[in-house]
Design brief:
2 copies of one chain form a homodimer. The first copy, chain A, has 9 helices and 17 strands. Chain A has 353 residues and is of the alpha/beta class. In chain A, a hairpin with a 2-residue loop joins strand 10 and strand 11. Chain A starts with 9 loop residues before the first strand and ends in an 8-residue tail after the last strand.
Chain lengths: 353, 353
C-alpha cells in the first residue's frame, strides 16, 4: 500500500526522518552530563519509547499515571511522572506500580508526601521524588529555597520515599524563537537552580538529578551541563509550532487528508479539529506553505490561489501541535518513502487518569 | 460510588438534565413541520442516539462514515452523513452500509455522484442524496441554483441513487447570541432555500427534505416550518460556548477534575487540553464563574482570589466545546444527584475515517 491509498485522515511517521531525529538527539547529548529522558506525552506509543531507549535514553518521562502504567507493562524500567499524583486511589496505583520499575514522581506539597510515604510503605515499594521548583511557568512547584528544603527534608526522612532532586521545567521557553533571549533566560534560570542545589547541599541534602528541558532548549542544556536529565518530547516528530526554531530536528509526522470539495476560491479537506488539534495553531500544508487554512470539526478550508485542487487529491499536513494531535488517534502508519510498511498503536491515547 | 470518588479527569452526564433536554426539544418541535434528526458528532454514543430516537427523533445525523457504521451496527435505521464521501474505498464501504439502513449522504460534485451511483449499483444498494447548498459558511456546497439543479438532476437520473433534497447548514449562526440578528439572518437564508425549492419544483424535481439547523437556531426553525429536519447536536449536553444564548436547554455534561497543587494566587487542576478541548475557548468553573482559567496539556491554572483551594478538592468544569471534548474520552459516567449510577461507551470516539 502507498500513502495515497490510506483512508483519511491518517497519521503517518516517516521512518527515515524518525531515525535521523533519534540520531540527532544522540549526537547533541554526546559528551554532555545531561542524559535523555524523553517525554512520552508527545507520542504515547510504547513502540517509540523502546526505540528511544535503544537509541540511548536513560528512561522515559510521562505526564499521567495511566501512561506510566502502560510504559511499565511494556517493559520500561525507569519512569518519571513529571506531575503531581494527589488522589488517594491513584496513589495506591502508584505505589503498586513502583514495585515493577524505578518510579519517580513530582511533589510540591507536604500532605502529598505523607500520603505517598504511607501508601508506599503499605505496598512495600519505594517511590522516588523530585520536588518541583517553579522557574517561571507559575503552574505547579514551589518558588523559594526554604519551602523547597522543607519538602525535600520531609521526603528524605519519610519511609519508603527517596529524595532524588529537582524538577525544573520552563515550558514557557520551549517555543521561544529568539535564540539570544532564550539562551539568556535559560542561563538565568540555571543559575537559580544551581543556587538551590548549593543551598540544599549545605543542608546535607545532595541533589542527584536536575530534570527538565525541552526540544527547544536541549542544545543549550546539553552544553551547559547543569541539568542531568532532558525531558524533550517533540524532537522525534516536530510540528508546525516549532517552525520558527533553528534546530537540527525535522518534521517526520504528517497527516494525510483528502480533498472532498473544490471551488474556484478554496478547497476542503476531510481533516478538522477532531483530527488535528488546533491548540497551538493551524497545521502547515506541505504543497502550499503560504496558503490560508481554517478548520471546523471535520473540515479544513484551504485558500491557495495558485492551486486548482482535484477532488480526491491527497494532501499532507504538518500538525500544528504533535502532542495533542497524537492523542486523537489510535494508530500511526509507518512509512518509508511513499510505502506504508507497518502501523503502531498509540498505546496511551486518552490515558488522562 | 459518588462523583468525588471518581478518578479524574472524568466526564459525567447528569441524567435528570439529560431527560429535561430531550423533553425540551420534543416540546419545541411539537406541532412543527420540522422533525428532529440530532447530530451524533456532539456525543458519539450509540446509547444516547437510541434515547434520542425513543424521544421522537426520526433518525440520526453524523459527520463521518465510521460514525454511520457504528450507528447502523447499533440498530439505527435512518442515518444521514452530513458530509461528502469521496475516497473510492470509502464509497465501497458506504454502498455496503446502505444495504443495512436508509442511508443519506451529501454531495456537491458530479464526479462524486457518478462514483456513488456505480458503487451502489455494484453493491445492489440504494444511496439517498442531499445536494449541499452553501448558505454562507463558504465550506462545502454549491451556491447557485443552476449548478444545484444540474447535480440534483444527475442524481435523479443515476442508477441506485435517490435525490432527497437540500442540505443547508448555517454553522456560522449557531452561536450567534444577538436574537434579532440571528432571526433576520435565518429568515434571509430560509427565503433563499424556499426559492431554490421552487426553482427545482418548476423543473420537475420535488424536494422531500430540507435538512440543517442547530441548537442555536432550532426554536426559530421549528416555528418557520421551512426545514423538514433539524440537525441540532449540542442541546443534550450544552457547553460553555452556548453560555450567552437565551435557550431552554441546560448544561448536563461536566468534567470532574482534582486540585493537584495550591498556591496563594492560584490552584492547579489535573485537566488540560488533552481532557477538555480548547477550540472554542476555556471551560467554565462551576464554583467560581468569574475566575480566570488557562490550560496546558494536562493542567488547568485557575485564579480565583475569593477561594482557598484544598489539595485533592473536586472541581466541576463545563467543557468549552462538548463535541470536541467528548472525542477525547472512551466513556462517560452517568450520574443522578451525586451518585454515579452507570457508565456508557463513547462508541465513536476517534472515528474520523
Amino acid at each position: 500500500m502507498i500513502i495515497s491509498q490510506l483512508e483519511t485522515p491518517a497519521l503517518i511517521l516517516d521512518l527515515d526522518i524518525f531515525a535521523e531525529n533519534l540520531q540527532a538527539m544522540d549526537s547533541l547529548l554526546k559528551g554532555s552530563k545531561a542524559k535523555l529522558r524523553p517525554h512520552y506525552k508527545s507520542h504515547k506509543c510504547t513502540y517509540i519509547a523502546h526505540r528511544q531507549i535503544e537509541a540511548g535514553a536513560k528512561g522515559i518521562t510521562c505526564a499521567k499515571l495511566g501512561e506510566a502504567e502502560d510504559l511499565a507493562q511494556s517493559g520500561i524500567k525507569d519512569i518519571l511522572i513529571a506531575n503531581q499524583i494527589v488522589q488517594k486511589s491513584k496513589i495506591v496505583r502508584l505505589a503498586q506500580l513502583a514495585k515493577t520499575c524505578k518510579l519517580t514522581v513530582c511533589v510540591d506539597n507536604a500532605d502529598n508526601i505523607a500520603d505517598l510515604s504511607r501508601m508506599a510503605s503499605e505496598a512495600g515499594s519505594v517511590i522516588y521524588c523530585l520536588v518541583e521548583f517553579d522557574i517561571g511557568m507559575k503552574r505547579c512547584g514551589v518558588s523559594d529555597f526554604e519551602t523547597f528544603y522543607r519538602l525535600a527534608a520531609k521526603i528524605d526522612s519519610a519511609k519508603n520515599l527517596v529524595f532524588e532532586g529537582i524538577q525544573a521545567y520552563a515550558g514557557h521557553l520551549s517555543h521561544e524563537t529568539d535564540d539570544l533571549f532564550r539562551a539568556a533566560e535559560v542561563e538565568k534560570l540555571e543559575i537559580r537552580v544551581l543556587d538551590l542545589k548549593k543551598y540544599l547541599l549545605e543542608r546535607k541534602l545532595p541533589v542527584r538529578e536536575i530534570s527538565g528541558g525541552s526540544t527547544g532548549t536541549v542544545q543549550q542544556k546539553a552544553q551547559n551541563g547543569v541539568y542531568t536529565e532532558i525531558q524533550a518530547g517533540s524532537y522525534i516528530f516536530m510540528d508546525q509550532t516549532y517552525r520558527g526554531l533553528d534546530t537540527v530536528f525535522k518534521n517526520g509526522l504528517f497527516l494525510v487528508s483528502t480533498v472532498i470539495s473544490t471551488h474556484p476560491d478554496r478547497f476542503i479537506l476531510d481533516a478538522g479539529i477532531k483530527s488535528c488539534s488546533p491548540d497551538q495553531g493551524m497545521p502547515g500544508v506541505m504543497k502550499y506553505p503560504d496558503c490560508e487554512i481554517a478548520m471546523n470539526e471535520e473540515h479544513a478550508v484551504v485558500r491557495a490561489n495558485s492551486h486548482n485542487a482535484v477532488l480526491g487529491e491527497s494532501v499532507l499536513l504538518v500538525p500544528g501541535h504533535c502532542c495533542s494531535t497524537i492523542n486523537l488517534y489510535d494508530q500511526i502508519y509507518l512509512v518509508r518513502g511513499k510505502e506504508v510498511v507497518d502501523r503502531i498503536k498509540v498505546t496511551s491515547r486518552g490515558k488522562n487518569v
